[in-house]
Design a protein that fits this description.
By secondary structure, the protein is α+β, with helices and mostly antiparallel strands. The chain folds into two domains: 209 residues, Orthogonal Bundle (Endonuclease III, domain 1); 118 residues, Nucleoside Triphosphate Pyrophosphohydrolase. Helix content is 42%, strand content 14%. It has a four-stranded mixed sheet with strand order 4-1-6-5. It has a three-stranded antiparallel sheet with strand order 3-2-7. Strand 5 and strand 6 form a beta hairpin. Helix 1 packs across helix 11 and helix 9 packs across helix 11. It is elongated. The structure holds adenine (ADE).
Length: 351
Amino acid sequence: MNEILTPHAVKALLLWYQQNKRDLPWRHTSDPYRIWISEIMLQQTRVEAVKPYYARFLETCPDVRALAALPEEKLMKLWEGLGYYSRARNLQKAARVVVEQFGGVMPRTYEELIKLPGIGEYTAGAIASIAYGVRVPAIDGNVLRVLARVSASDADITLPETKKEYREALLPVVPTEAGDFTQSLIELGATVCAPNREPMCEVCPLRENCEAYREGKTNEIPVRSPKKPRRIEEKTVFLIRDGDRTALCKRPAKGLLSGLYELPNVNGHLNEEEVLAHLRTLGFEPLRIQKIENAKHIFTHIEWHMIAYDVRITPEFDGLHGQSGMLLVPNGELHKSYAIPSAFGAYVKYL
Ligand code: ADE
């Protein structure tokens, strides 16, 4: 690959960033811990959605030792609604390594950072460049789009080897202002060379360097191979409650949404008769069963298509002793202490 960005283009990009960057909370700090938290949250989540979580997370866990010591249930509650919960678990695993092996100080090099749980090439590059000024690139989806367009490359950006090529091309180009350079590429990809809409080439600092612009190909580039269709799973969800308390289950320790709490549910779509039979096997004798709204939740590779029943039980019901994993939780506590994924949002709002 030829020089992907000339020194002149790098200067133009840095100047544009100085003049146009959004005022974001993680841009007011050089604390590597805070930058790490922001980059992990931002990996799969929009900036506006991240902001309140970022503030709340840092209030509860202002440093790496606080994160290492946080009880799991509190960690999950802090992350509730943000999705991709393994991010939070890996953050804590890495925090424990930093405390035990690095005396509570985030390592400074790309090579040490990338060894930590949950930190890949992108995040190691982002932390090293933004917090420590190390001249390494950080290439996320935004940056890939910018680089693919600048070079008018028709390489499939979903392939690891494409990312590797860009990484090698970008490495010699990273200036001494490494952190601003990283963020300028991310910012350009998020705001000007944006996804899912026309890029705003008329205000782009790289327009003169952009081969896709010159060739009128910004709509065709980047090239990405089509995604596999998501697997559809049908579920029947139960809102089992007695007025003050609601039944919750803890999900298994491994797999999708592991360790979080959920409304009791089964695979498949059950009719009212089947619901009654199922509830009886759990030891419930419902007072009333009423079908409520359907809901859909989309994960990366799976879609849940949910039907649901509101099930009333008597307040005296105490038949859950020995019923593994199921709890009857007072509604106030449910909102305060139990992390329930947004997949159940359509039903938790009833409580
Ligand atoms: N997305 C990933 N990292 C980001 C950052 N530092 N600022 C804004 N958006 C981002």
